[in-house]
């Protein structure tokens, strides 16, 4: 419907008409999240983690049930984002066996953490024991305070 026919020529009504026409367009895919984004968002939401700060380090503790150390990746992206990923695959069904109930989580595990400025990305260690991953990021030493610069005053 053209708003000018109804006698509504104000800028507000023409903007509303533009928005209404815009939403009728068949190509709405540019607003829809990608499958990868949705999968990663679900993985992040369902991967519990604790973050602790110690005087000399940051420690990230992440539950990774049923994963072996070879199934877990710990990476640093963009110089300050700690990325922890892993994937647990569904067990192969054995002959004659069927699931009565399936509650254990399968699929991708993922967490991202933005590291503080004083995190030393060159000194990161990771240990997985009993399904719990512990990632330790050492802190950089605090910068030395700048000493005041003394300027010699000359007699003219």
From TrEMBL:
Organism listed in the record: Prunus persica
SHSP domain location: 40-156
Transmembrane segments: none
Protein name (Swiss-Prot/TrEMBL): SHSP domain-containing protein
GO cellular component: cytoplasm
Top-level taxon: Eukaryota
Main location: cytoplasm
Compartment annotation: Cytoplasm
Family: Belongs to the small heat shock protein (HSP20) family.
GO annotation, biological process: protein complex oligomerization; protein folding; response to heat; response to hydrogen peroxide; response to salt stress
InterPro entries: A-crystallin/Hsp20_dom, HSP20-like_chaperone, Small_HSP
GO molecular function: unfolded protein binding
SUPFAM superfamilies cross-referenced by the UniProt entry: HSP20-like chaperones (SSF49764)
Keywords in alphabetical order: Cytoplasm, Stress response
PROSITE patterns: SHSP
Organism lineage: Eukaryota, Viridiplantae, Streptophyta, Embryophyta, Tracheophyta
């Amino acid at each position: 419907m053209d708003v000018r026919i109804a006698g509504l020529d104000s800028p507000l009504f023409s903007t509303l008409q533009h928005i209404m026409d815009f939403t009728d367009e068949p190509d709405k895919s540019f607003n829809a999240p990608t499958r990868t984004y949705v999968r990663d968002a679900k993985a992040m939401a369902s991967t519990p983690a604790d973050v602790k700060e110690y005087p000399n380090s940051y420690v990230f503790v992440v539950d990774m049930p049923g994963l072996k150390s070879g199934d877990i990746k710990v990476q640093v992206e963009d110089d300050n984002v700690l990325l922890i990923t892993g994937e647990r695959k569904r067990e192969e069904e054995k002959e004659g066996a069927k699931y009565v109930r399936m509650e254990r989580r399968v699929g991708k595990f993922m967490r991202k953490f933005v590291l503080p400025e004083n995190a030393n990305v060159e000194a990161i260690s990771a240990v997985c024991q009993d399904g719990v991953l512990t990632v330790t990021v050492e802190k950089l030493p605090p910068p030395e305070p700048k000493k005041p610069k003394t300027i010699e005053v000359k007699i003219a």
